[in-house]
Specification:
The structure is a single chain. By secondary structure, the protein is mainly β. It folds into two domains: about 70 residues, no CATH class; about 100 residues. About 0% of the residues lie in helices and about 35% in strands. The chain is built from no helices and twelve strands. The strands form four sheets. A five-stranded antiparallel beta sheet has the order 6-5-12-9-10, with no helix packed on it. A three-stranded antiparallel beta sheet has the order 7-8-11, with no helix packed on it. A two-stranded antiparallel ribbon has the order 1-2. It is elongated and about 80 Å long.
């Protein structure tokens, strides 16, 4: 014996009844809370492009996709490089024209275009990929400039300078 079921649910299903209230959305788009005049939920019109981040535009406005770097203080440059080669082989970068190996564990990251001045923050790490070989850099090999940052790499135990295969540096302002 089978019984039929007929649904009398409205389409689209309202938010109050567990639905989104949307009749359609953009594929892969983010759904955000909206306003009463525009709808309780809204699909952001864009899905962005590779490398963009979803950025708040404040209360009363939907977020938008934007590039990571920008004038409001974000990542200005980054580089991932192999320090066992001379010059350092860049594997990926943005805002970095080259990496020079001055001596063992002593590198200059050349910024292009140059930053506004030498007052930026740097975060860097490196290692050889094995257990116990990773380090965090914590010293300038020379004073930073708007177009170059010279840094030293060594083991976390305070040993001699070391050329690591895997190095990452980001510049933030």
């Amino acid at each position: 014996m089978s019984q039929g079921f007929t649904s009398q649910l409205p389409v689209p299903l309202p938010v109050a009844q567990g639905g989104s209230g949307l009749t359609s959305t953009t594929a892969y788009a983010v759904v955000c809370g909206g306003t009463t005049s525009t709808g309780n939920l809204q699909s952001i019109a864009s899905v962005g492009t590779s490398g963009q981040v979803l950025t708040s535009n404040g209360a009363g406005a939907l977020p938008t996709f934007q590039a990571v770097s920008g004038a409001n203080g974000n990542i200005k440059a980054f580089v991932a490089f192999d320090g066992t080669t001379s010059p350092g082989t860049i594997n990926a970068s943005s805002g970095v024209s080259s990496v020079t190996r001055n001596a063992t564990g002593d590198f200059t990251v050349n910024l292009s275009p140059a930053l506004a001045d030498q007052y930026y923050a740097v975060s860097a790490s490196g290692g050889s990929g094995g257990v116990g070989t990773w380090t965090t850099w914590g010293y300038y090999a020379a004073a930073p400039t708007s177009s170059a940052y010279r840094l030293g790499t060594g083991t976390s135990s305070g040993g001699a300078n070391t050329n690591f295969a895997y190095n990452s540096v980001i510049f933030v302002r």
